[in-house]
Design goal:
About 10% of the residues have low confidence. This protein has a domain of 70 residues: Immunoglobulin-like (Sandwich). 8% of the residues are buried. The protein has 327 residues and is α+β, with helices and mostly antiparallel strands. Strands 2-1-5-3-4 form a 5-stranded mixed beta sheet, with no helix packed on it. It has 3 helices and 5 strands. It is rod-shaped. Strand 3 and strand 4 form a beta hairpin.
Amino acid sequence: MLKNRKKWTAWSVALLCMLAMMVTICRAQTNAIVITFDANGGEVAITEQEVGAENKLQHLPTPTQTGYQFEGWYTAREGGEEVTTDTVFDQSTIIYARWSPCEHSFLSPCDTTCDVCGDVREAEPHAFDSICDFECNRCGEIRMATHTYQNDCDATCEVCGHKREAAPHQYAHDCDAICNICEAQRIIHHIYDHECDPVCNNTECGQIREIAHCFSAECDAVCNVCQAKREPLAPHTYSNENSEVCRDCGEAKAGDHFPSENPDNTPSNPQTTTPPSLPTQTPSASKSTLLLPVVGAGVAAVLGGFLLWCFVIKKKTFADFLAIFKK
């Protein structure tokens, strides 16, 4: 019985201690000092705050009121004492915000909001040199400006002349002369095997051009550059009837040529045609002049043979010869 009585006595003392602590806490909460903030026409984020250690406020909120400048917290609307974080409170109370007309302060001529009271004014607009200018001339504010270009390959802004690193021109292939983006033209050089090659070697290009073979004369059959052969050819041109070498190409008469569309037998490219040098010849006689000696020689040969037959082989005399004519 004694042991049980001691246990109940210990539990009773513990419960009484706990009740005493709860009463103390409740009394402390009931006697807490609360400070109420009256913005006095303005606005404040915190309306109540309990005092801390030594019955002082840890910090004071800052209210705002458009057109007015905050002067501080006071114990009365008019007059009273100024309240700071060093003020000691012995009871809950209300403190009031004190205001004075704001002497507006703006960061720049273009700023519309007072940086003291937040009052908004109608300020002068920003001043830029052009729609591409990104910095205001009055306040230095930076804005996002957009330059104007004709296309992606254009490097100079049409409005302000700003230079940029533009995109390179784009072409379909190496022989393409017109940009796919801006249609800018460039000078290109097709690649050919030789001057007479009509098709560009670039497979993506395949440009076909008109060519002209280079011949020494109208009657020349082989191109001087690519050795291509042509026909029909113009007839040879000779200096005279006895000439054996063509005056234009230097080929001998034995060559077979076809008539061309040049009836005058004049070289089509006299600037590049150099007539071959011909040996100096004396003027030859006409056909009739050459025929007489040939006929005379034939008659003399026949007469000589007849006389040889008569006087040598037949041993006839001149008298016998005359006798034949007398008969």
